[in-house]
Design goal:
Strand content: 5-15%
Distance between the termini: 99 Å
Number of helices: 3
Number of domains: 2
Largest sheet: 4 strands, mixed
Structural class: alpha+beta
Oligomer: single chain
Number of strands: 4
């Protein structure tokens, strides 16, 4: 009888140990999923905040040369944050995080303006009367889901 009660106590201890280990494993996976989901939400929010800085200009037809200079400087700030960026040779592509900004007289004829000084852009616009409004089109990379190209042309 004494051995039987001792066996029951040992069995109960093993069952309680299994329950504790099962609970620990369950909590590990639940909290692991929670942390993974939280990281995913943070990444989505960070991407949305990044894109919103540029998307606020998308499809607007009332932009001025000052808006173009502002967007150009946002893009340069982003591009210079990567050590492998070269303003004269690096171009935005679907597989990188760089941004290119273009300005032209229409949607199809565009000039890259990242390496043009702000003063030159402003002076060119003053030479064109200084009162033109511009339209903006923003493209988003299918791979990185980030803004990668921004086009400006005069509103007609």
């Amino acid at each position: 009888m004494e051995n039987a009660s001792r066996a029951l106590i040992i069995t109960a201890g093993v069952l309680i140990g299994i329950l504790v280990l099962s609970l620990a494993a369950y909590l590990y996976f639940v909290f692991g999923d929670y942390v993974a989901n939280t990281h995913e939400l943070i990444a989505i929010n960070t991407l949305a905040q990044f894109n919103d800085k540029y998307l606020q200009y998308n499809n607007r037809t009332d932009l001025t040369i000052q808006d173009i200079v502002t967007v150009k400087n946002y893009a340069l700030e982003n591009n210079y944050s990567y050590s492998d960026y070269n303003i004269n040779s690096t171009i935005a592509a679907d597989n990188n995080n760089f941004i290119d900004v273009f300005k032209g007289e229409n949607r199809t004829v565009q000039n890259r303006i990242l390496n043009i000084p702000d003063e030159q852009l402003l002076q060119e616009e003053l030479n064109n009367g200084g009162q033109r409004k511009f339209t903006c089109e923003v493209t988003i990379s299918q791979q990185t889901r980030r803004v990668n190209k921004i086009y400006f042309y005069p509103t007609t």
